[in-house]
User: What shape does this take?
Amino acid sequence: MTALLYQTDSYLKEFDATLNGIDAEACAVSLDRTSFYPGGGGQPCDIGGLTIRDKTYPIERLQKRGEDLLHFLGRDESGYPRSGFDDSLLSVGLAVHGQINWERRYQLMRTHTAMHILCGVIWRDYSASVTGGDMEPLKGRMDFEFETLHGELVRVIEAAVNREIAAGREVRIKILPRQQAFAIPDLIRTKINLLPEGISQVRTVEIVGLDLQADGGTHVHNTSEVGLVHVVDYKSKGAINKRIYIEIT
Ligand SMILES: [Zn+2]
Assistant: This one.
């Protein structure tokens, strides 16, 4: 089982861990703990490095396998391990050191929090719920159940988002028992009921006074860290579906 350190400390850039599984064919290892985000909820996975016996392997892909998180030790285009993977050098119980690419991760944290601020503002001001979204560092797009969207309205939304950022709202993470989370009315609108049956705990991300969602991603501690949000484009994706594109500086 891999403990997911980023769930409670998204600012952890480096960590020590123990190797607890090796998949030689996949050129991947699992660890007892990690701060690598595997990807999900629109947020791409972290990249970085994993040092095992003085050799640092690039990590560019991760995958959940049961309770474990597999870290793929980077390969080149021909499928050979880029950094000379030799599984005879690896054994369960080895101490390893991981380091995530912090510049990229922090940009993703700012972006992900910006997306939640946008959701919160659009729900509060227009009662429109979000239907999907995707992000990369400092860029994102979100779809809303919105009937009419026009240039003037987009500027109003952008200004409201930046006011919430400037307000310096605290971002709180909680891990709650399933029943307790399901009893929170605010979480119903973000489709918490779609969570798989087997999940006994729900992680929530609250932008205090603005937004509350069940969410597995990494976020900044305070909205003031986000920067400035620019709505750079918008599109109609159907009668009641509108897409908003943002960038962050
Ligand atoms: Zn999210």
